[in-house]
Amino acid sequence: MSNEHPTPNTPNESTQNSNKVSPFLTSPLPEGTPQGQQTSLNQASQDTPITEQVPHYNLPRGAGKTGNVGDTTHFGFKTVRTEDKAQKVAEVFHSVASKYDIMNDLMSFGIHRLWKRFAINMSGVRRGQHVLDIAGGTGDLAKVFSREVGPQGHVVLSDINESMLNVGRSRLLDAGCTNVDFVLANAETLEPFADNSFDLLTISFGLRNVTDKDAALESMYRVLKPGGRLLILEFSKPVFEPFSKLYDLYSFTALPIMGKLVANDSESYKYLAESIRMHPDQRTLKGMMEKAGFQNCDYHNLTGGIVAVHRGFKL
């Protein structure tokens, strides 16, 4: 774990093996366009045509174009119409919802639980506070926050995806979390929520799937109380290049295979790997938070930068 100026923290075996280059690493892996740089329509030959059929799922109000993104955007490494991305993301998470937790354990070797524990420890959550867990999915963080805020506090678990939210609702109700509400909400607008409503906002492994991240950050700032804090737990950019190449190899080979074997869905996990590469790096996301109005922003790299926890305050 490290702060904004991280010292690479890589297992010794990675360093020892750096001189033995795997033959698999000689083949180029897919490369995405960094978030904020719109994918060119000239790449249509290597992208899925933007005229493909788009599924239809029940999405909350506010989904769609917000004005900060052009007519097209990225969906993994593909170019799609901006208005279609939310539906395509919904298709992915509808497909993986029932196996989401077990796949998280398998893909991260259980380390995701430590990442989430670190984020919770940074939250500063206290008794009686109001917490909004955005894109909270199956409710890992919301379950802990429910206990920490106590009966006088309140937690809202929100997600844009109805299938994921249903899994989270079942888990938390079975666990006896009576101080939690479940709201279908789009992170870009957070339309159901009033200004200055929450002491703490969290979004865990969800921001990279949002079409307009700038609009989402502005909405988070709006609903946060003065003095409140935002925590973003998300995949990021590894800080050690040899480690990054091995991570790429794992992401683009092992994840789709595991997705096929466990969830019978390799394409969704291919998208998830691509979406990680398209997400802003640590410094870029910190700058986006500051642009949205957050102050005293910082970030902490976990597992060599595979994941980062960003923090910002509304003062």
TrEMBL record:
One example of a Gene Ontology biological process annotation: menaquinone biosynthetic process
Pathway as given in its UniProt record: Cofactor biosynthesis; ubiquinone biosynthesis; Quinol/quinone metabolism; menaquinone biosynthesis; menaquinol from 1,4-dihydroxy-2-naphthoate: step 2/2
Reaction(s) this enzyme catalyzes, per UniProt: a 2-demethylmenaquinol + S-adenosyl-L-methionine = a menaquinol + S-adenosyl-L-homocysteine + H(+); a 2-methoxy-6-(all-trans-polyprenyl)benzene-1,4-diol + S-adenosyl-L-methionine = a 5-methoxy-2-methyl-3-(all-trans-polyprenyl)benzene-1,4-diol + S-adenosyl-L-homocysteine + H(+)
Keyword S-adenosyl-L-methionine: yes
UniProt biased composition (Polar residues): 1-25, 34-48
Enzyme category, top tier: transferase
Residues reported in the UniProt entry to bind S-adenosyl-L-methionine: T138, D159, N186, A187, S204
GO molecular function: 2-methoxy-6-polyprenyl-1,4-benzoquinol methyltransferase activity; demethylmenaquinone methyltransferase activity
Entry EC no(s): 2.1.1.163, 2.1.1.201
Region (Disordered): 1-48
Keywords: Menaquinone biosynthesis, Methyltransferase, S-adenosyl-L-methionine, Transferase, Ubiquinone, Ubiquinone biosynthesis
Keyword Zinc in annotation: no
Pfam families, per the entry: Ubie_methyltran
Family designation: Belongs to the class I-like SAM-binding methyltransferase superfamily. MenG/UbiE family.
Function comment: Methyltransferase required for the conversion of demethylmenaquinol (DMKH2) to menaquinol (MKH2) and the conversion of 2-polyprenyl-6-methoxy-1,4-benzoquinol (DDMQH2) to 2-polyprenyl-3-methyl-6-methoxy-1,4-benzoquinol (DMQH2).
NCBIfam families according to UniProt: MenG_MenH_UbiE, PRK00216.1-1, PRK00216.1-5
Official protein name in the record: Ubiquinone/menaquinone biosynthesis C-methyltransferase UbiE
Lineage: Bacteria, Pseudomonadati, Pseudomonadota, Gammaproteobacteria, Moraxellales
Gene expressing this chain: ubiE
